[in-house]
Design brief:
single chain; alpha/beta; Rossmann fold; eight-stranded mixed β-sheet; 8 strands; about 35% helix; globular; zinc; GlcNAc_PI_deacetylase-related; hydrolase activity, acting on carbon-nitrogen (but not peptide) bonds, in linear amides; PIG-L family deacetylase; LmbE-like_dom_sf
């Protein structure tokens, strides 16, 4: 369920927009669960096929110095279990170094490659703009994901002469309909999803990431509080929870090639 909260108007109409496939890009294992797992659980429950692409293995995460050699494998395993709880089994990794992610042409090319291969209706990504109200949302790797994905979806994704080796490999140019960004500045939010019915699935997914969030009770209190606050920003009835996005129409009926 999408909410018109009297804020900047979302261009996305769930009543008329077809959603069959979604591809989500994040920096680290656990990012998608905090940012959008409620929405993803709603999508998969409705039969939408959702895939993840995680750009790093989370190798700089955790708290135990003795886990350095195994933390990446541990976090990948956590993400696999968490994803399954919200109906996702297709997970891709770019294996970039945690904390060093850049919107390089190497990364952008891989984003273009995967989108062309899967051809989703919606790409979900972390936001390229910093959130000054809650700077923890704006880890430099998060911003790099947003920049790389935004640069990939236009123009490289739909330009047959960008990264010609991809076209040579059979991955034809593709016009993405929608880009949904999360974890950006509050003032950019223009689309809210009521995820009240999927809070338990979202929290169960987050609970899997114990290597990053050992204080489970504090984590759950914080997430529940933030989701209720987002629900209030969305104009939902008291006690309802929401996730927020900045939705961008990349290609639609009004799109003119080259503009």
């Amino acid at each position: 369920m999408s909410i018109d909260a009297g804020r900047p108007q979302s261009p996305f109409d769930p009543e008329t927009s077809r959603i069959e496939r979604v591809l989500c890009f994040t920096a680290h294992p656990d990012d998608i669960d905090f940012g959008a797992a409620g929405t993803i659980a709603a999508w998969t429950a409705a039969g939408v096929q959702v895939s993840y692409c995680i750009m790093t293995d989370g190798d700089a995460g955790g708290f135990d110095p003795g886990q350095r050699d195994e933390i990446a494998l541990l976090r990948i395993a956590e993400q696999k279990r968490a994803a399954a709880l919200v109906g996702v089994t297709d997970i891709h990794y770019l294996h970039q170094r945690d904390g060093y992610l850049e919107a390089s042409h190497e990364v952008i090319r891989e984003v273009v490659r995967l989108i062309r291969a899967l051809r989703p209706d919606i790409v979900v990504s972390m936001h390229p703009e910093r959130n000054w109200n809650r700077i923890q949302k704006s880890h430099p790797d998060h911003l790099a994901v947003g920049e790389a994905v935004t640069r990939a979806v236009y123009p490289a994704l739909e330009n047959p002469f960008a990264y010609p080796e991809l076209a040579d490999a059979g991955l034809a140019a593709y016009k993405l309909p929608w880009l949904w960004l999360f974890a950006g500045p509050d003032e950019r939010e223009n689309h809210f999803v009521d995820v009240t019915d999927h809070i338990d699935s979202k929290l169960e997914a987050i609970h899997i990431h114990v290597s990053q969030h050992p204080d489970v009770d504090a984590m759950e209190r914080t997430v529940r509080g933030l989701m209720l606050k987002t629900g209030r920003r969305a104009g939902l009835p008291a006690g309802r929870s929401a996730e927020a996005f900045h939705v961008v129409a990349v290609n639609g009926p009004a799109t003119i090639a080259g503009f």
